[in-house]
Amino acid sequence: MSASEIPQGLNGMDLIIDGWFHERGTLWPGQAMSLQVAEVVYHGRSKYQDILFFKSTNHGMVLVLDGVIQVTEHDEHSYQEMIAQIPLMAHGSPKKVLVIGGGDGGVLREIARHSSVEEITICEIDEDVINYSKKYLPTLAIGYTDPRVTVKIMDGSVFMAQNPGTFDVIITDSSDPIGPASVLFEAPFYKGMHDALAPGGVICTQGECMWLHKDLIKPLIQAVSKFCTSVEYAFTTIPTYPSGQIGFILGTKGKESCKVPVKVDREMEESLNYYNKEVHEAAFVLPSFARRAIFE
């Protein structure tokens, strides 16, 4: 839920009961995720949202925004590596990369592994997420130390409109489609991403869960297919996200499928915890129920 939708008096701290943080989201009714809390290290409210960092007993540091788990140190690599490496490897030799959201810095960390990249720009509207992630999630926020990174504290849609035909890869690392983030799951935003791509470019966005959000994913893919050359859905497994799975919507501009990586870097794969060429290709193989629900 967005900050404006949080009932009066409820905040991240209200979700800690008997030493456990309980995530209950409106987008996953009837189920919840609980993590045992060792220590709360920060809680406050930015201009945009409620922010909570706590040390868990088994999952390391945890970032929670508006009551929803965004990152745990235990499993963040499966999300950060896949949302970044799939489009980067599918492109093959990106030089200019844009990140929308992703204030924790994990996507930046993954992009920085690529020597072909000359410029990395991140548009994050909430500067507090960046500042507190640098303090409490240094293994992710290390991405900000790369000299190729430029930080823009602003609306990513505005920045893309100002830079048409510019970027080889655009990655949107967003929260769920409720409150302020809802516009990031609408066709005009995807059209803005497509227009900001250079020829042959790739976009990749957080694409929600195939177990929970088929009715959201299908119409979005249908809308995006009207202006992208190809539109595909891939996924990764991640224990602390709803139903243990999160998807990615990938679109291209003058380029065909992203299912097979153009670039394969076995040396880089040795430094990664989740992504490799085989996982890249397998990520697009959907269970029958999801394939039918999303694409038929």
Automatic annotation (TrEMBL):
InterPro entries the record matches: PABS, PABS_CS, SAM-dependent_MTases_sf, Spermi_synthase, Spermidine_synt_N, Spermidine_synt_N_sf
GO cellular component: cytosol
CDD domains for this protein: AdoMet_MTases
Domain called PABS: residue spans: 18-253
Entry's family note: Belongs to the spermidine/spermine synthase family.
PANTHER family per the UniProt record, alphabetical: SPERMIDINE SYNTHASE, SPERMIDINE/SPERMINE SYNTHASE
Name recorded for this polypeptide: PABS domain-containing protein
Source species of the chain: Triparma laevis f. longispina
Upper classification of the organism: Eukaryota, Sar, Stramenopiles, Ochrophyta, Bolidophyceae
